[in-house]
Amino acid sequence: MGAGPAGLAAARILSEHSVSVDVFDQYPRAGGQYWRHAKNEPFPAESFKTTLTSSRLNWLFECSIWQIESEKSGHTIYAIQNGRTIERTYDALLIATGAIERPLPIPGWTLPGVMTAGALQSLIKGQGLIPGERIVVAGSGPFLFPVIESLQKSIQQSSSSNPSSDIRIVGIFEARKLSRWLLNSVGLLLNPEKVIDAMRFLINLKREKLRVTTGRVITSIKDTNSKNVKRISVMPLKGEKVSNNPTGQELDCDVIAISYGFTPDLTIPSILKLKTVNKEDDEIVMVDSNQRSSKLGVWAAGEITGIGGHEIAIREGEIAALDILGKGGSLTSAIRKIDRWRKQIFATGLARVYKVSKRWFEWNADDVVVCRCEEVSRDEIINSFRELGADSVRTSKLFTRAGMGMCQGRLCHRNVQDIARVFGSESTKISRPIGGAVTLGELSD
Amino acid sequence: MKPLRTEVVIIGAGIVGAMCAYYVNRAGLKAIVIDRGTVASGTTGAGEGNIMVSDKSPGPELELALKSRDMWFEVAQDLGNEFELVAKGGLAVSRGDASSLFELSNSQSVAGVQTKRVGASEIQELEPFISKAIQNGVHYPQDAQCQPMLAAAHILRQLQRRGLEFIGHQEVLKIERKSENLTVRTSTLEIQSDFVVNAAGTWAGEIARLAGSELPIMPRRGFILVTAPLPKYVNHKVYDSDYVDNVASSDADLQTSTVIEGTQSGTILIGASRERVGFDKSISVSVIQRLARQATSLFPILAGAQLLRVYNGFRPYSPDHLPVIGADSLIPGLYHCAGHEGAGIGLSAGSGKVIAQLIKNEIPIVNPEPFSPARFQMAYL
Ligand SMILES: Cc1cc2nc3c(=O)[nH]c(=O)nc-3n(C[C@H](O)[C@H](O)[C@H](O)COP(=O)(O)OP(=O)(O)OC[C@H]3O[C@@H](n4cnc5c(N)ncnc54)[C@H](O)[C@@H]3O)c2cc1C
Ligand SMILES: Cc1cc2nc3c(=O)[nH]c(=O)nc-3n(C[C@H](O)[C@H](O)[C@H](O)COP(=O)(O)OP(=O)(O)OC[C@H]3O[C@@H](n4cnc5c(N)ncnc54)[C@H](O)[C@@H]3O)c2cc1C
Question: What pTM was estimated for this model as a whole?
């Protein structure tokens, strides 16, 4: 389930053996978030080309899995493809459904032109489109780098094809200071190639006369009198608090891409009631060294077992596939496990460097909307704890409807959880009993 | 540690516990509500919030339901309607032979329920998106709806301003009778009181046992499909009355009947009918499909509606499907108010009032006999 780096890496190994494999993905093409590409483009990773044409793999694209039932005879997947119900039973399942972005609510984040960095990335990668001319990238975390890189590339392309085009990145703001990288010194020692990656990125920026302003955050976004133009306020961060010293600045732009990292998409794992654990405040699927979940016959790989990037996802997918084939104890698997360990140390350190502090919610105006689908504000959520007696995300949701709308908390669960933690609440496990888009009509057939 | 002292301890902060607290407080008694979780963390957090008179046959439950329905509006008047209480009305429809529906509505109207028979054109007027095939129905203007979790929370919050004490996150582990007192214990608290009200819903049998008594309350699973927000396609609470016939038939598979309604947030809730039917099954694809099929055949426009969520809860039920309201036969001072099955929201106000009246030795608003715990406790006496 999921044809991103983790799912594809597993499929590649499985396709070399005589097992029959179905690969499900809700997108029209393989690649997941990392290898997102436009329809007419070649697949971005050379080493997967033969996998994509393997006769042992049966691809089920634009197919959304909405339910799974587990019985002794196997696991039955219920999915919808082009309005048709698919119902198939399997001996083994590998869940590799990836992550969801985690925005941080700030006043004005619901205005048009404001988007998550991932949404901007998808527009660029999937459709070759830059939705404006003056672009700001802000937030925190390593994901800002690839977004800026694709943005630069895309800007170059558009100015070479249309010399009159004048698209510019007008600001890059990273909340965390560079000095926090000390928190990941072990990770860097074990993964020296990452230092080279970072240097290359910085040199690239320099060449374009761009710089990342660190220790600064966007605290509000407002409309201006001129069409499409937004005015953002950028303030320095002192400790975890917004400060006015040195003074903040204002900046006009028309696209604001914000990223505060990712959170695992636990929709499918929650349907299967897989055991989960907390890692760096994220709920992740609990797996053993062979990526086996708590349920017999179910493996999990990629971002759902912890945010770590595509390289770890690939290793995990491979390790899971080897174990599915009964080769969990092989040398091939052992080598991959060592590599996974090395990369995980880096990823864990990275999560520490770019930790989204619970106190960051304090910068916000009380009436900032946290749950967009149901338009629930921060003070309504706080009120549900202070006044109505909510004691968890679950009960707060019953009172406020935060997380009950179209996206079923995919966007806000993690943020409501962080607000709830301030009130001493234990974390509420994610529960989304319906995994993907399905209509009553499709169910009635 | 010094024990707390009060007149009434109410165990359970669901809607039933909240309403007991309301009427006990109105009766001038000092009370503490205690819950092992927080407010509405039990079945009340899974309920649909219908306050219905239309789905009950004449008898003690209907009598209580009628009174309780009006009392809900009095509570809203008193405390402020911050829980979306509206008398939206119910519409029971029949696809085939409507004789049993009309028979039921006739007897209901004799019992004091407002009913109005409606034909195809009136049905279309009440529900413009309903299937054109529907020819017969009964409109029940008294049927109402509320948001039960908000109701319980709001009632308890307001009562705390009127002297009620609410203690969350304390599980009752023991109930002891000593001389004239009942002592309720948790791992860190001891509360002495004259009366204890067991409003622990599905877990009421457990509470009775802790006190040294017995009560046959069991869980019965029920669930609801929730669609994505839609325009107002469904105005009333609409249900398929054919289940009356279905239940009469011995075909167990047919024991689902659609109950469809819109909520203020725009989502449509599709449930199995309360009261006469119920599942002991877990969420299963086949049941979801059957409910979806029934819903789309009643409202064809819902075929395009996206299913967002399915949730379930455990309805507390007693062997004869009537709630248990009254004094325990074995333990003096212990009262039960539980086992309301699929109607606990609707019946909560009336039940709370009856409890307060029994404690105060007043004549209750309905004859409490049929609800007495004694009907299940004879064997132990
Ligand atoms: C919006 C976004 C953009 C990102 N862009 C980048 C980037 O540019 N560079 C980078 O280094 N990292 C990026 N990441 C991080 C990225 O998630 C990982 O580095 C990597 O792709 C993880 O691989 P994965 O296989 O675990 O998950 P993914 O690549 O996310 O793959 C998961 C796949 O599962 C499918 N899926 C999920 N649920 C269902 C369902 N119910 N039914 C059917 N299919 C389903 C999805 O369609 C998806 O294709 C991005 C993440 C997000 C959320
Ligand atoms: C899917 C579904 C839909 C429904 N729809 C409707 C409807 O539309 N209309 C309607 O009228 N009814 C409906 N019902 C039924 C209704 O929800 C219940 O009858 C009602 O909520 C019961 O309320 P209660 O207060 O008795 O129980 P609960 O809400 O369960 O409260 C009991 C409380 O006792 C607490 N407790 C238990 N043990 C202990 C202990 N040892 N110590 C301390 N505290 C304890 C629990 O934590 C809980 O909070 C529905 C039920 C379901 C499942």
Answer: 0.91
